[in-house]
């Protein structure tokens, strides 16, 4: 690969790839170990907290079940509950005494149930409610009044529905959540009421933002506590049973939970990953150190290998590329390099010097051969044209047409002077066109009233260099293959210059009105195949191509086609830069 590209098979790429692969493997191994440790710790933390949740949930369900039995027993066996089911107006004193005894019973019993705040009895017959709270609940009158209002509102709306067989959730207008239970006997309802916050307080991770938090969630997994933090960190509470899942922004929270068997709620634990990984801080730091080291080490190793190993090789490669571009003055410095590279550089310089001398000798010999070949090509004369011209002069002398003899002789002298006197590889376009015009006049004298021609040329192109005889060769080929004594042959030559500077080009177009190229000949010409026959036919086109290849090694354009209205069309595009510039240009005068 040349230029600014880089080969994937180069030493630099292979060494860099090897270093990167080693570093990536090292970092990958370290991270695999780190992630494995993180996975193990996550599983251990999840297992430990799952046990804690299960233990707490079993205890909570046991307390709720015990409260269920108490409410059922009270509804069945307590006669005062049955008296409240009667109309108060029938025996108001008996109703009030039963209500007082029931109050004392509930007051005494509620202290035995830690997971309840209020026990209450509601008489549907008398629309009367009896509430009894724990001693540690309702420290202020406002709190007790608010709780009474919530229970009355719950009874007012909840009694319209069938009584659920499990503990239910109540959400107040202020957004607080409560857990309650109702047991019906006749038209009387017994119930227990507790704040949802109270049910999760015994957990160790409660209200510890760094270690995590526990919360109760509805059956739809709406959080009853820590709702703001759950929403802020986009934590999804849809846990998987007996396992854990990562949730939240960047999956930075471990979520696990358990469904209550006695209530319509879930107990969910949310633990930050930072709390899980705090015991892996040393391993995490070691992983970062190894990662940073794996990033720095390849750079240092690459710098060392580049200085000691790659740079000397790259200098040799660069020198070889300059040599391939033709710069044979390239040499390698014998600087501060290893002994092996010093020997290689010295041997390289000596070898290049020997090759340079050999190449110069071969090049000079090739130039001499090309010059000789060009001269030979330029001096090729069509013997039939020469003999036919002499035969015409002889016939004209027989009829004593001396004016035409003089003009024919003058044209032939100019024709052969141009051929024999030009030792240059290029002539001015004006001289080439003058020679072509002279050649066409000779043909007109040979075939009167059978040949016409026209030459159009831009003035700024007249002094442009062009190889001698290139236009005349094409014109001669047209006359040879398109001329007949029955039809008038018309030849049109158009020459112009285009472009500027090193991009300047000479455009030559030669067209006739003959039958054009036969299809098989046109195919061979377009395939750039030689048309030289055994008897020497079509030597002109071969001569033209050969000379253009020698004089324009960087390329030229020579096209053959048939015109839209018939006839053959030959187009040449030649450079007017260094290849076709004024070097070796001859101007023929007279």
What would you report as the Rg, rounded to the nearest angstrom? 55 Å
- The proportion of strand residues reads 15-25%
Tally of individual domains: 3
- What is the mean pLDDT? 82
Describe the structure in your own words.
By secondary structure, this protein is of the alpha+beta class. It folds into three domains: 43-278, no CATH class; 328-372; 379-586, 2-Layer Sandwich (Heat Shock Protein 90). The chain has helices at residues 11-77, 79-83, 92-110, 141-158, 196-200, 227-232, 273-276, 281-324, 339-378, 383-398, 402-421, 429-446, 470-482, 519-526, 539-551, and strands spanning 118-123, 128-133, 168-171, 177-185, 188-195, 213-218, 245-247, 253-259, 265-272, 426-428, 451-457, 465-466, 489-498, 505-512, 557-562, 568-575, 585-586. Strand 3 (168-171) and strand 4 (177-185) form a beta hairpin. The longest helix has 67 residues, at 11-77. The radius of gyration is 55 Å and the shape is elongated.
Produce a short descriptive summary.
This protein has 15 helices and 17 strands. It is α+β, with helices and mostly antiparallel strands.
Main attributes of the structure:
590 residues; alpha+beta; Heat Shock Protein 90; 3 domains; five-stranded mixed beta sheet; 17 strands; Sig_transdc_His_kin_internal
